[in-house]
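Supplementary material to the annual report.
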Amino acid sequence: MTTTIYDQGLDRNPANFQPLTPLSFLERAATVFPDHVAVIHGSLRRSYRDLYARARRLASALARHGIGRGDTVAVMLANTPAMIECHYGVPMSGAVLNTLNTRLDPAILAFCLDHGEAKVLITDREFARVMAPALQQAKVTPLVIDYDDPEYAGEGQRLGTIDYEDFLASGDPDHAWAMPGDEWDAISLNYTSGTTGDPKGVVYHHRGAALLAVGNVVTGTLGKHPVYLWTLPMFHCNGWCFPWTLSVVAGTHVCLRQVRAKAMYDAIADHGVTHLCGAPIVMSLLINASDAERRPLPHRVAFFTAAAPPPEAVLAGMAEAGFDVTHLYGLTETYGPAVVNEWHADWDALTKPEQAARKARQGVRYPPLEALDVLDPETMRPVPADGETLGEVMFRGNVVMRGYLKNPKSTQAAFAGGWFHSGDLGVKHPDGYIQLKDRSKDIIISGGENISSIEVEEALFKHPAVAAAAVVAKPDEKWGETPCAFVELKASEMVSAEELIAWCRQSLAGYKVPKHVVFTELPKTSTGKIQKFVLREMAKAI
Amino acid sequence: MTTTIYDQGLDRNPANFQPLTPLSFLERAATVFPDHVAVIHGSLRRSYRDLYARARRLASALARHGIGRGDTVAVMLANTPAMIECHYGVPMSGAVLNTLNTRLDPAILAFCLDHGEAKVLITDREFARVMAPALQQAKVTPLVIDYDDPEYAGEGQRLGTIDYEDFLASGDPDHAWAMPGDEWDAISLNYTSGTTGDPKGVVYHHRGAALLAVGNVVTGTLGKHPVYLWTLPMFHCNGWCFPWTLSVVAGTHVCLRQVRAKAMYDAIADHGVTHLCGAPIVMSLLINASDAERRPLPHRVAFFTAAAPPPEAVLAGMAEAGFDVTHLYGLTETYGPAVVNEWHADWDALTKPEQAARKARQGVRYPPLEALDVLDPETMRPVPADGETLGEVMFRGNVVMRGYLKNPKSTQAAFAGGWFHSGDLGVKHPDGYIQLKDRSKDIIISGGENISSIEVEEALFKHPAVAAAAVVAKPDEKWGETPCAFVELKASEMVSAEELIAWCRQSLAGYKVPKHVVFTELPKTSTGKIQKFVLREMAKAI
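Predicted assembly:
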């Protein structure tokens, strides 16, 4: 590279370069809007001044216990004020925040504690039942800090010797926390739920967390002082980075220990909630709420959903209930949402089914993501934008993880060819919007033809008696594989396997129609994902 | 530094690291909203697809002429579509965009061309009168490309051999432009008007431009598809980075060659303008417009102003006219606005004079700026936040320039002690908001333009009758400030104020010419320094 006049005497220095980090967002919010309410939890109201002081106390107390750069602090917390404080206080000490999935079983929790080499565990009393055996099984012996949430009245003993509030009280509210030495430093560790094999530890850095946090502001058109309801678990991809996003715009966190319809409507009405995120199940709760659970909304509310495309009936129900739904997509490896279904104003003129079809697409790259494409994983060439040719969805950019902790083999495989391989199969429409068709391991290959399990599931969903459906490959001597459907029916609905097969035949090509239909409750992971590997075993056994 | 588990096997790679740059914003807007109107100019409507294609054509044509990384491309352009294209096409070729101030005189323009080592000059026909002598005086011989704006019907010949449209036509609309190799690479060069001596070349990098561009979205609460009126010159701090900001939110640029009241009201009414920026003079034009010039606004319009605190009467007039004014502050060295008067909702309850007093404060750091403070430049300690103790306003962070081109001495002085020294004097209020109390003594800000008092003094000195001269700012309702000259004549020499003003007009741009000339003995300190603060008081009293 030739040296130019711009390469001389214009270097980085402390005045013109700072590491990107979401931590400085809180410092700014606390300086500019110290009295604005940062956290609501039950009857608790905490200002930005207090939130910042508590985060600094936490960082200070951790530092006094010898915690510093690159140490892992695990937390087993619901969507409580402590969880928000940990998103700032832990990295302010230089440590890495590992939010444990509160629905996991002791064995996997013990694995996570050991693999992440947790030095500290902050755990909510409610989860003592699983954390006690997890700590017994784990080889590490972290400092255990108990969080006793006044809003939690249920069972559960304390596991450690230090109370969270006492721990904070021992810290300095004016603690001079340090910016990360490098924006590439780890800020958090998120274990994937691992449908097969051990969970993998996804490492986020300060740079990506800061960029995605601001990306949420841009994508979600968050104005100043939004009021955000915590229905999405913060342990999941750091709550899509929203714990940091809120500080950018000095918003108010409304905590919620348990996602219930009445509690959500109450929070929205009482606190003027403007935004919330959640899986499809949250939308179901909202639109299926009884009159007794409902409250009138103070204004239209923005709802960001991911995990599965919102069906037409759900979109209609949400719109009627006063929610504007935006469809996002991403993975733990992409800091949560890195793809957005950017809505075009002229799509409002389409029919409702056409609108639902548009909304079902995952969409386009988030502003801070450099590139999103559907590639042939063999050739690494983009598939044609024809809405039909299947390829693997791949990501590239600053909001892609650093890699999997202590797992160079999986890291290298994930980044082969200069792209992050999502493992999701999809198509690219002529307008560049991508749409998922299946997980690569969930695809069914019958007589050499690829069958998207999602497409078959959608056909089943449209039958009025079907509550849930999952389709997997069943080994077949003649065809290699055939689609096998597992179906949950709605209460008091009845339909036969033959009727469902005939139903599918009306809308699907013959080779895509399930050869077998099994009525059963679908096995799910702790995060609510259907465990297709269990179903595949069941299908084999038929 | 101890190596931790997070320091192993989690390195940067093409899948998880990209250089920050505003250039990818345009690629995204053109991909997601290709048909959205990006540029309006007279009867011209240009989509994002077209804007992106034209920027790529420009980058391609420049590359074909051997222009690449670290080459300077100077432009002498009004707020026209070409100016927007240059903000993308020039850096897409790896080159550095040097936007020349269209109000400068030939000698300074020649200096800029030479100092920046311009390889290419793109110049609007309107400015041929000053660019022709500038090119004659300059040592460099850039490739000259003429831009002949169809909206310009005035005088001015072509200076080069290539027409801008022909140049673009020679480029490839699908040109595979490269991301900057490093986000620290220079994206633009902006010459300060030079308070003492020669102008200094402020160098911006891709990282800072991207961060400030997104910072504008957050600070300005820009939703999707804003309509932005170009009243702020794009040659000034790259239009506060708004040429790049608009692509983040797929907004519409409404171009304007000349800032006139009727044209502004027409644009707002005809195109539904939502946002604009400008110096106090623009606000004066808007509120002093005649009924014939005015049109009803389609909605309330956001107006961002800087350079001087908006007086109460102006704020009242703007509010009545339908504009919501936000007060920003920054310098060329901070990419334009890096400080914002963040308004608190409860200040709406204050009296109008109290509100004006709050609004007059410059405020707090922009979200992407790490730190803003008022320091004692001797001790580098913050002044007490008492609203009274004077110190120097200093900046630190990613939206501070790389430094001054080929000027290591000034660069080091500007960054002494790890802060950028603004040269502006101010106080810090108890709530942390800063307020300027005195511009660095010799700067006069007239109509948003910095005027070096020394430059005007030098012009006066050259008159044979002048013994001594000092020029200070005189407050002016229309222009904010105007230069006021205090002159000592040589013994037995006589000259009138009118003659001296005419004399200055021969060598200075019109806005730099003193509006008042006072003949008096100059007040001096014991060491012989002129006491400009005394003169400022005298100027006020005139």
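The domain at 443-541 of chain B is CATH 3.30.300.30 (GMP Synthetase; Chain A, domain 3).
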